[in-house]
């Protein structure tokens, strides 16, 4: 395939799935600006290495992988220090009710080790197939299945413990 065609496929993929990519980045950093930065950095990385794509039909999975690794790199650099932005502080100061419908689920998901959180997020929040997830996280499909099973089990235990307290 010609380079121009791959670039066009990539641009189409970004346009068609930009909300999905943003949501995935946001699920890691919980901050609008940081999530946008991660998507922007991911696009930059993708454009630099777009010639490495061997199968143009897997551009979406390839880019998901870049977003995941960029988000993980960001978290490593930040060392999980989360600063509240002015908008969040103002919102909390007004005493409004939480906008999250399933805050217990999101909190429990945040407590999981990243390799479980990543698989669960890609499977249930991004609705990706196990094969796509295996390609994104660069693991064997059986490893992905095991992580999904164990992650869901840990999630269930965490949520159950929270309900008991």
From TrEMBL:
<dbReference type="GO" id="GO:0006950">
    <property type="term" value="P:response to stress"/>
</dbReference>
<dbReference type="InterPro" id="IPR014284">
    <property type="entry name" value="RNA_pol_sigma-70_dom"/>
</dbReference>
<feature type="domain" description="RNA polymerase sigma-70 region 2">
    <location>
        <begin position="14"/>
        <end position="80"/>
    </location>
</feature>
<protein>
    <recommendedName>
        <fullName>RNA polymerase sigma factor</fullName>
    </recommendedName>
</protein>
<dbReference type="InterPro" id="IPR007627">
    <property type="entry name" value="RNA_pol_sigma70_r2"/>
</dbReference>
<keyword id="KW-0805">Transcription regulation</keyword>
<dbReference type="GO" id="GO:0006352">
    <property type="term" value="P:DNA-templated transcription initiation"/>
</dbReference>
<dbReference type="InterPro" id="IPR039425">
    <property type="entry name" value="RNA_pol_sigma-70-like"/>
</dbReference>
<feature type="domain" description="RNA polymerase sigma factor 70 region 4 type 2">
    <location>
        <begin position="104"/>
        <end position="155"/>
    </location>
</feature>
<dbReference type="InterPro" id="IPR013249">
    <property type="entry name" value="RNA_pol_sigma70_r4_t2"/>
</dbReference>
<keyword id="KW-0804">Transcription</keyword>
<dbReference type="Pfam" id="PF04542">
    <property type="entry name" value="Sigma70_r2"/>
</dbReference>
<dbReference type="InterPro" id="IPR013324">
    <property type="entry name" value="RNA_pol_sigma_r3/r4-like"/>
</dbReference>
<keyword id="KW-0731">Sigma factor</keyword>
<dbReference type="InterPro" id="IPR036388">
    <property type="entry name" value="WH-like_DNA-bd_sf"/>
</dbReference>
<dbReference type="Pfam" id="PF08281">
    <property type="entry name" value="Sigma70_r4_2"/>
</dbReference>
<dbReference type="InterPro" id="IPR000838">
    <property type="entry name" value="RNA_pol_sigma70_ECF_CS"/>
</dbReference>
<dbReference type="GO" id="GO:0003677">
    <property type="term" value="F:DNA binding"/>
</dbReference>
<keyword id="KW-0238">DNA-binding</keyword>
<comment type="similarity">
    <text>Belongs to the sigma-70 factor family. ECF subfamily.</text>
</comment>
<dbReference type="GO" id="GO:0016987">
    <property type="term" value="F:sigma factor activity"/>
</dbReference>
<dbReference type="InterPro" id="IPR013325">
    <property type="entry name" value="RNA_pol_sigma_r2"/>
</dbReference>
């Amino acid at each position: 395939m010609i380079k121009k065609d791959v670039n066009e496929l990539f641009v189409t993929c970004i346009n068609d799935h930009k909300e999905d990519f943003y949501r995935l980045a946001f699920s890691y950093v919980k901050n609008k600006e940081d999530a946008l930065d991660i998507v922007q950095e991911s696009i930059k990385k993708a454009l630099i290495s777009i010639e490495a794509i061997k199968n143009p039909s897997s551009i979406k999975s390839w880019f998901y992988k870049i977003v995941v690794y960029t988000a993980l790199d960001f978290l490593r650099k930040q060392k999980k220090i989360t600063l509240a932005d002015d908008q969040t502080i103002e919102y909390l100061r007004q005493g409004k009710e939480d906008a999250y419908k399933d805050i217990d689920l999101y909190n429990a998901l945040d407590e999981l080790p990243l390799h479980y959180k990543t698989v669960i997020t890609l499977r249930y929040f991004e609705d990706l197939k196990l094969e796509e997830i295996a390609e994104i996280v660069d693991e064997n499909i059986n490893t992905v299945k095991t992580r999904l099973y164990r992650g869901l089990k840990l999630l269930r235990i965490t949520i159950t413990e929270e309900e008991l307290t």
